[in-house]
């Protein structure tokens, strides 16, 4: 079954304690992204990756790191979590990225089930 | 302000009623995607619209795209409790970063039996 798997689903931690949220996809997708979802702000992109060893910042990258050593995995790292990083996090993957005119954009992103993080 | 505005923000309907959710972009877009999210869970892809005037249907859900107005509508016919959830529109925008979808803040739909 084609899927994007995130772990853990729920995480409670304390300020400053490093954590990693894992993400894995089995669809051989090149593109992967991390989003956070907050009430009233919607989904915002944190980082994305276009392929192995190629990553770039999204809209809200501060306080986060990512790596893409293998095509299927795209972990999100919080080196020193703070309470303002309490959020619902989603990993997503897609076959291709955005770009181009009408008729060629096929940026269908497939999402994981989410990780609810609380930083105390 | 949001680049993608959804309306209404929330909606309560009686089972069997029809409803429409709108998504309007403030920027030129060239790909519009509808997703459904159950509370606290992941987003499920529903439909993608790629060109003006395009209309797609899946079961009782129909999505249309008005390219001139930069607007899409999602219409549910004869709503059922299984339709309840949060509906989000996402879009590729001209000049947007690779692999980035911008999202509306969502429309929360409740269907009363």
Give the helix/strand class of chain B: mainly beta
Q: Portion of residues in helices of chain A?
A: under 10%
Give the helix/strand class of chain A: mainly beta
Q: Any idea what the radius of gyration of chain A is? A: 14 Å
Seen as an oligomer or otherwise, the chain set is heterodimer
- The mean pLDDT of chain A is 90
The average pLDDT value of chain B, as a whole number, equals 88
Would you write up a description of this structure?
The complex is a heterodimer of chains A (120) and B (113). By secondary structure, chain A is an all-beta fold. Mean pLDDT of chain A is 90; it is low at 100-105. Chain A starts with a strand and ends with a strand. In chain A, strands 2, 4, 5, 6, 9, 10 and 11 form a seven-stranded mixed β-sheet that branches. In chain A, strands 1-3-8-7 form a four-stranded antiparallel β-sheet, with no helix packed on it. Chain A is globular. In chain A, 0% of the residues lie in helices and 48% in strands. Chain A has no helices and eleven strands. Chain B is mainly beta and 113 residues long. Chain B is 0% helix and 58% strand. In chain B, strands 2, 4, 5, 9, 10 and 11 form a six-stranded mixed β-sheet that branches. A five-stranded antiparallel β-sheet of chain B has the order 1-3-8-7-6, with no helix packed on it. Chain B is globular, with a radius of gyration of 13 Å. Chain B starts with a strand and ends with a strand. Chains A and B meet through strand 5, strand 9 and strand 10 of A and strand 4, strand 5 and strand 9 of B.
């Amino acid at each position: 079954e084609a899927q994007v798997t995130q772990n853990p689903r729920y995480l409670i931690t304390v300020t400053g304690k490093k954590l990693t949220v894992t993400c894995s996809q089995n669809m051989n997708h090149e593109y992967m992204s991390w989003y956070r979802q907050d009430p009233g702000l919607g989904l915002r992109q944190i980082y994305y990756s276009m392929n192995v060893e190629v990553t770039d910042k999204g809209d809200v990258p501060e306080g986060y790191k990512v790596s893409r050593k293998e095509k299927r995995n795209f972990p999100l790292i919080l080196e020193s979590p703070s309470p303002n990083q309490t959020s619902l996090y989603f990993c997503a993957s897609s076959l291709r990225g955005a770009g181009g005119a009408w008729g060629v954009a096929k940026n269908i992103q497939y999402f994981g089930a989410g990780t609810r993080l609380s930083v105390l | 302000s949001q680049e993608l505005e959804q309306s209404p923000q929330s909606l309560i309907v009686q089972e069997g009623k029809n409803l429409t959710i709108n998504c309007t972009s403030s920027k030129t877009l060239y790909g519009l995607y509808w997703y459904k999210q159950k509370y606290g869970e992941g987003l499920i892809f529903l439909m993608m619209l790629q060109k003006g005037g395009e209309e797609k249907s899946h079961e009782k859900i129909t999505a249309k795209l008005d390219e001139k107005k930069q607007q899409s509508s999602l219409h549910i016919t004869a709503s059922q409790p299984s339709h309840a959830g949060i509906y989000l529109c996402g879009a590729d925008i001209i000049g947007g970063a690779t692999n980035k979808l911008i999202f509306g803040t969502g429309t929360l739909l409740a269907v009363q039996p």
